[in-house]
Write a structure and sequence with these properties.
mainly alpha, about 55 residues, single chain
């Protein structure tokens, strides 16, 4: 199991910058697509990158 002590910091950052609104503002995303909205997928990818960028 991997310890992720920095994850709460990234979650606070996402709340502060309001990541989903920033994604909608600067990127063309689909809102009525079938399945997960593009905003949710992109938010998860950003968090994944922030969390695991230092693990080699």
């Amino acid at each position: 199991m991997i310890s992720l002590p920095g994850l709460p910091i990234y979650l606070d950052m996402v709340k502060e910058i309001d990541l989903s609104k920033s994604i909608q503002k600067y990127l063309k995303t689909r809102k009525d697509a079938y399945g997960w909205p593009d905003v949710q997928i992109l938010s998860k990818l950003v968090l994944f990158y922030c969390t695991f960028k230092d693990i080699h």
